[in-house]
Amino acid sequence: MKSIYFIFTLLIGSILTSSTTKHEYYVSVTNIEHAKEQQSVQIISQVFIDDFERLIRQRYDETITLAEEDEPEIVDEYMKRYLEDKLKISINGKAYKFNFIGKEYKEDITYCYLEIENIKDIKSIKVVNRLLFDILPEQQNIVRLKLNDRNKSFLLIPENDECMLNFN
Asked: What InterPro entries does the record point to (predicted)?
């Protein structure tokens, strides 16, 4: 009887700890850097694939599965539309729209590449990052700024979803 209990415990334990279970924390990381030579602000947003997939299924199309070879082209449009709605950037007091360059999947993360062109210098930057707050109340978003030879990080939560950095 003890051996059956032991096998049952091992089986349940392996199921509960398998890689297909949801991760324990909900966080995204958005890196924002000023590329002075290109006069652009380059942005990389990293979001867990399963969280992004859940969002796209709830908001746009419940049949979408991310990170598959035959992924529909519309996924890029869904991601772009969502990022434009939830990630806002103002530079020197002016709101800017970014270009969605593309995305790629590495391990369990979606990397979204964005760019704001024609930015010569930055005196201030304000970032509003509400990624996934609408579906995951425990979501946290880290914003890392690398601007004017200065590095600064912010942790944004649903109750405090914006950060600002001044260089004056």
From this structure: DUF6702 (IPR046525)
